[in-house]
């Protein structure tokens, strides 16, 4: 029987690429989001879309019906995984799901306070097989979370100091996730997903400058200055504290690990940062300035 593969967070940076990669393989996809209408608007009416809302447990069972494998990720705004995500895992097991592919965080085994660590521990004991995709910092955060500062102010405003990051393109994460969802041999395995090299944000800004044809400057604020600036801009405090903590870990060298797992699994090198900037350059294009009338 051709069981549907449930993809949670189908409209997110990673979830979108998981759906696309599965569709390219001809796999049966069931895209899960709080708004199925938004999914159909994005992907088209031909894709099966279901309501799945971590805040509404009554949406779990209908979405999970007939599912054997699922892609699970923690929405960035959710830190209370015990209250909101654990019940979804329980519902998956009760529905007959056999394997969960979970999007985790690189180095999480050393960060016991991270929500990802608690999720991994719970999945290990839930009675289903699991695959952990421990990803490094997404390149696509630079054309979403940080798009305005690059486009409008020609700067990258991140409190990471000289810490290096092994940036990963979410297109590679999506390809790896689709592979683990459609092939055997990945049960109870952990993969570290990184780019092929580690760069600090000064080097990243230089690559932006070269591709965009204008100077992009890396501002390395103190952690306190970063938090204060984001609070003034209205960033929700729980989300801000998580991101500030992650960037502080980067400053301490926790994000510099480079793995060969993407190359080994996909049979090709990971997408490099410069290629990503070229592919997404329109996101940071400044509107033409009107001259005097």
- How would you classify the helix and strand content by structural class? alpha/beta
Helix tally equals 13
Instruction: Give me the Rg, rounded.
Output: 19 Å
Walk across the major sheet and give the strand order.
Answer: 3-2-1-4-5-6-9
Poorly predicted segments: none
Encode the helix/strand succession as letters.
Answer: EHEHEHEHHEHEHEEHEEHEHHHH
Query: How much strand content do the residues show?
Result: 15-25%
Largest sheet: 7 strands, parallel
Q: Assign the CATH superfamily of one domain.
A: NAD(P)-binding Rossmann-like Domain
> What is the strand tally?
11
Please describe what this structure looks like.
With 293 residues, this protein is α/β, with parallel strands linked by helices. The chain has a domain at 5-136 and 170-193: 3-Layer(aba) Sandwich (Rossmann fold), CATH 3.40.50.720. The chain is built from 13 helices and eleven strands. It has helices at residues 13-24, 36-43, 60-64, 81-84, 86-95, 115-124, 147-153, 170-182, 201-212, 223-232, 237-251, 261-266, 273-279, and strands spanning 5-8, 29-33, 48-51, 69-73, 99-105, 129-135, 155-157, 164-165, 189-193, 199-200, 217-219. The strands form three sheets. The chain has a seven-stranded parallel β-sheet with strand order 3-2-1-4-5-6-9, with helices on both faces. Strands 7-11 form a two-stranded parallel sheet. A two-stranded antiparallel sheet has the order 8-10. Strand 5, helix 6 and strand 6 form a beta-alpha-beta unit. Helix 1 (13-24) crosses helix 8, helix 9 packs parallel to helix 13 (273-279) and helix 10 (223-232) runs antiparallel to helix 11. The chain is globular, with a radius of gyration of 19 Å. The N and C termini lie far apart (67 Å).
């Amino acid at each position: 029987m051709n069981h549907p593969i449930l993809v949670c967070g189908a409209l997110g940076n990673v979830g979108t690429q998981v759906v696309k990669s599965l569709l390219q393989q001809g796999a049966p996809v069931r895209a899960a989001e709080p708004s199925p209408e938004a999914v159909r608007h994005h992907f088209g009416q031909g894709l099966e879309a279901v309501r799945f809302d971590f805040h509404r447990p009554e949406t779990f069972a209908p979405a999970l019906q007939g599912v054997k494998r699922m892609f699970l990720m923690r929405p960035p705004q959710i830190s209370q995984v015990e209250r909101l995500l654990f019940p979804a895992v329980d519902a998956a097991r009760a529905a007959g799901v056999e394997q969960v592919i979970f999007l985790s965080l690189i180095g999480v085994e050393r960060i016991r306070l991270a929500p990802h660590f608690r999720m991994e521990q719970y999945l290990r004991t839930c009675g289903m097989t699991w695959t952990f995709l421990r990803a490094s910092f997404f390149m696509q955060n630079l054309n979403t979370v940080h798009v305005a500062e690059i486009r409008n102010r020609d700067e990258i405003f991140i409190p990471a100091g000289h810490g290096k990051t092994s940036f990963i393109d979410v297109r590679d994460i999506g390809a790896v996730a689709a592979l683990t969802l459609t092939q055997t041999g990945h049960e109870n395995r952990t993969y570290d997903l990184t780019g092929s090299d580690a760069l600090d944000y000064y080097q990243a800004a230089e690559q932006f400058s070269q591709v965009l044809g204008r100077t992009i400057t890396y501002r390395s604020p103190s952690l306190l200055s970063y938090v204060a600036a984001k609070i003034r801009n209205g960033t929700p405090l729980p989300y801000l504290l998580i991101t500030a903590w992650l960037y502080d870990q980067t400053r301490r060298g926790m994000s510099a690990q480079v793995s060969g797992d993407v190359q080994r699994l996909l049979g090709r090198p990971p997408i490099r940062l410069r290629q990503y900037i070229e592919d997404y350059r329109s996101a940071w294009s400044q509107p033409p300035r009107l001259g005097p009338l």
